[in-house]
Model the fold of this input.
Amino acid sequence: MSHLKGLAVLTLCTSLILGGCSILNSAEEEQDYKLVDGKNGAKEIRISEKEKERLKKVGEAYREENFVPVQEYIGEGFTLAPDNGTDAIAESHRDEVEQAVKKFFKENYKTDIKVHNIVGTADAASVFVESVGEPHFYTLAIIPVDGENETVETDGVWSLEGEIEQAIVTGLFAMIFDKEFAVLDDYLKRIVNKYPITGNRGEALANVGANNYATSYYRLSAITDPFQMILDAYLENPDISKEDLQTFEKNLSYDPEEFIVAIELFMSGDDMEPDEELIDQIALDIENIEGLPRAKYAIYMHDNLIDKTSGRGSKENSIKRGNPELIIKE
Done:
C-alpha cells in the first residue's frame, strides 16, 4: 500500500476505533446498547430506540453539512488525511509546487500538465493535474512538505506506484479507439437528455478526480502490462500521432476484463432515488450496442448528492450493475 493511501486508511481506521470506543462507553453509561444471544450461540448488540434516534440525527447533521447537489460540486471541501497545516504551506508555495510537479511529469513521463488543485495530507500535499492535449488524462503527484520549516521539498516529488502509467495508458487507449468511444459518448449523451440523470462536473474531475481518462459520465482504468507497447511508444516519442498509435490496434491482445469502463450517473433532481428500471435498461443497452470499446463495463447510479469531503456519490441507496455481474464487450 502506498504511503498516502496507508495514511488515509490509518486515519479512517483510527476514527472508527475511537468512535467505537466512544459509543461503547456511552452504552455502558446510558444502557443504550444491550448484549443478547443471537443465532447459533453468537452474541449480538441491540441498539435502543433512543440511541437509534441519536445516531440518525448525527447522520442527518453530517449529511446537511457535507452533502451537496452534484451539479454544484467542483471540489470545494475535499480532504484527505489530516493535513497538519501542510495544505496552507503548500498553497503558500504554489508557484514552487507547480514548477516542481511540471518538471517531474516532463522528465519522467515526457508529458506537459497543468495543475488544478493542491490538497494537504500528513507531511505532504497531493497535486491534482490534467495533461495538456493528447493523450488526455487526470492524475496526481505527491510533494513532501516540511511542516516544521514551512517549506516544500521540490526535489522529492513522487507518485503512487503505477498510477501515472495507468493514466497515460487510458488516454492512449481513448486515442486508439476514438471511434468506439464516440459511440459510447453519443449513447450517454442521448440517455442524459432523455432521462432525469446527470454526471459529474468537469471542474470536479479536474480538481479532485485523478481518474485517468474520464468524462462527466465515465472513467477508465486498466492493467498496464497488456498495453506496455503503446506506453513505451509514447514515452519514446510523446509527439506520436493518433494515426501512428492506431497501427498498434491489431497487435493489442488483451482480455476485456483488463480494461474497465466505469459509468457513473446521478439522479438530476432533489429527493430522487436511483432508478432500478433505468439502470437495468442502460445495462441492457450496453450489452446490445454494437461498436463499443472492447472492455468490461460497470454502471453506478446515485441520488443527486455528493459528499464534498470525499468527492464520492456512493451511499447506501446507490445501485450498480456489472460489478460483480460482468458486462463484457468482446
Observations:
- The mean pLDDT is 87.
